[in-house]
């Protein structure tokens, strides 16, 4: 029996392979002034990825403006795609 934990072994989710099985759960960051990604949100998730997490998630994203629950919450809409893409490119 091996003493090595599978926690740090790569894992596949569909076509995506994670470097390990650690996942940063969604938690409200409050880093989206104007309901858009900010440099602070970018830096936060980039540092989480650099720290070795297998996957991180952007939290509390509303798909409609009426679905916003908090100030500084992410609101998914076409004009924020470049900011979200910047984050995903950095963490990949």
Description:
The radius of gyration is 15 Å and the shape is elongated. The chain has a two-stranded antiparallel sheet with strand order 1-2. Strand 1 (11-13) and strand 2 (16-18) form a beta hairpin. The termini are far apart. The mean pLDDT is 94. It contains two helices and six strands. With 92 residues, the protein is α/β, with parallel strands linked by helices. The protein has helices at residues 39-50, 81-91; strands at 11-13, 16-18, 23-24, 55-56, 61-62, 74-75. Helix 1 runs parallel beside helix 2.
Quick rundown:
The chain is α/β, with parallel strands linked by helices. It has helices at residues 39-50, 81-91; strands at 11-13, 16-18, 23-24, 55-56, 61-62, 74-75. The longest helix is centred in the middle third of the chain and has 12 residues, at 39-50.
Detail the topology: elements first, then pairings.
Blueprint: E1 11-13, E2 16-18, E3 23-24, H1 39-50, E4 55-56, E5 61-62, E6 74-75, H2 81-91
Parallel strand pairs: 3-4, 5-6
Antiparallel strand pairs: 1-2
Helix pairs in contact: 1-2
Uncertain runs with pLDDT below 50, 5 residues or more?
none
- The first-to-last residue Cα distance is 33 Å
**Content-based structural category:** alpha/beta
The whole-number mean of residue pLDDT values reads 94
What oligomeric state do these chains adopt? Answer: single chain
Biggest beta-sheet profile: 2 strands, antiparallel
Please give the share of residues in helix. 25-40%
Net shape: elongated
Spatial sequence of strands, sheet with the most strands: 1-2
Q: In total, how many beta strands? A: 6
Q: Can you count the helices?
A: 2
Radius of gyration: 15 Å
Q: What fraction of the residues are assigned to beta strands by DSSP? A: 15-25%
Write the element-wise H/E pattern from the N-terminal end onward. Answer: EEEHEEEH
């Amino acid at each position: 029996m091996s003493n090595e934990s599978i926690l740090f072994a790569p894992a596949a989710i569909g076509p995506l392979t994670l470097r390990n099985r650690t996942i940063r759960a969604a938690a409200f960051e409050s880093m989206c002034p104007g309901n858009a990604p900010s440099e602070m949100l970018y830096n936060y998730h980039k540092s989480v990825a650099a720290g070795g997490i297998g996957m991180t998630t952007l939290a509390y994203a509303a798909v409609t403006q009426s679905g916003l629950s908090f100030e500084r919450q992410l609101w998914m809409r076409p004009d924020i795609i470049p900011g979200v893409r910047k984050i995903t490119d950095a963490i990949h």
